[in-house]
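Technical note accompanying the year-one report. For the benefit of new consortium partners, we illustrate the data format agreed upon in the data management plan: each record pairs a sequence with a structure-token string. No post-processing was applied to the example shown here.
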Amino acid sequence: MHEYLQRRPSLIWWCIILCAIAHPAASDVYANSSSSKAGRVIVAQANVQQADDLVNRGNALADKKEYDRALTAFSEAIRLDPQNAYAYNSRADTLREAGKAAQGLSDAEKALQLDAGNADFWDTRAQIFQALGRRQEAIADYKRALELDANMAETRERLKRLGVSP
């Protein structure tokens, strides 16, 4: 059977596509795509879901201060879905919590590059700037976070601790 499949790679793709079509979430993707493109999109959707699961697992590990395992989960999420801003932000925040703020700065900036409208991402970068002693940049980012979401009480408190009125 194995040799037969090696001679028939298109048969494997058709099996994958047909299985994927049967999945309810995939039907809309397949309807608007060519069959080979649909196969790639479905695989990409699976990667996105797996990456999201890894971000959630990483956040749970970081909450338990298991930083190395959390960082591994975030890195794997980024490998699966390089456009996952939450994975970059969580890895940045975990690096900061682990005392490696300088290493987290590039991830915080990547998260903002992917989604500059997320107040939490501005807050994360502000905390990294604060940890690095870059007070003015931290203040600017905290203020930007509050512009995006005025209900961020912790961000408001961080600004107050810096002697700045929100």
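Partners are asked to follow this layout when depositing records. Residues 1-15, 17-37 have pLDDT under 50 and may be disordered.
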